[in-house]
Amino acid sequence: MKSVNRAKLDLIIAVTAFGTIGIFVRYINLPSSVIAFVRGAVGAVFLLLLLYFRRTPFRWASVQPHWKLLALSGAIISFNWITLFEAYRYTTVATATLCYYMAPVFVTLASPFLFHEKLTPRKLLCVLAALCGMVFVSGVPQSGLPEAGEATGILLALLSAVLYASDVSINKFLDQVPACERTLVQLAVAALVMIPYILLTEDVAAMTLTPLGAVLLLIVGVFHTGWCYSLFFGSMTYLPAQTVVLFSYIDPIVAIFLSALLLKEPLGWSGILGAVLVLGSTLISELPVRAAAETK
What pLDDT sits at residue 288? Predict the structure, then answer.
């Protein structure tokens, strides 16, 4: 049986890898929809092979009663990826990642209506702090209103955050479906949804892929999606949800660091303050009440 320490290591590897995906996407010379299709298809095949080599049968009986929600979730995932990958092309990886991490805020705002959860004063204060942080992430206090391209990237990343929040909300109703089967179906549906979308919106015959782009695309599909998703969801079986939430913040920290180091995309004082407000408020919002009280 996997130990807790091994599960933590797997989780760290997965969330660290998630923080690097923006760097890879930047250098793949294909439309975002095609990258999303390959990511879903390769990831689904990888998980299917993983089940096969582990001699674990696919439990269709646990999937069938929830296939409508799984299909909806998979479709949302595909457009979540498209909007995020497009955001990387218009704004910095750091800014897009920080906008994307507004997803917990959107889930918090929707929870009283969807899950009848009480919006406590602490959570409401965290939401307001995160929204204030987004103003700083946009760069308005430092440089004024963003240019059209930058504004487009921010809006696309925020749309991606809304889609991700929607997917998280749907998955709250799918906790009876085993993690591997759930993820496999969602990735397969995401790939299938992209096929007609690509045929209707892209000139497939005119697409070209450089050798570097092909290697990076394969890495995004096999490593970032297939292997890291299996590590991520596998670790959730052995770790408390709170640990998973806390370790997930490695993702944006890595993305911000690599954005500055490799792409020379510094945040500036406005972005740094915004990052502290967005990530800090969402982290505090997820902490148990007792833990939050102990930090005062």
Answer: 66
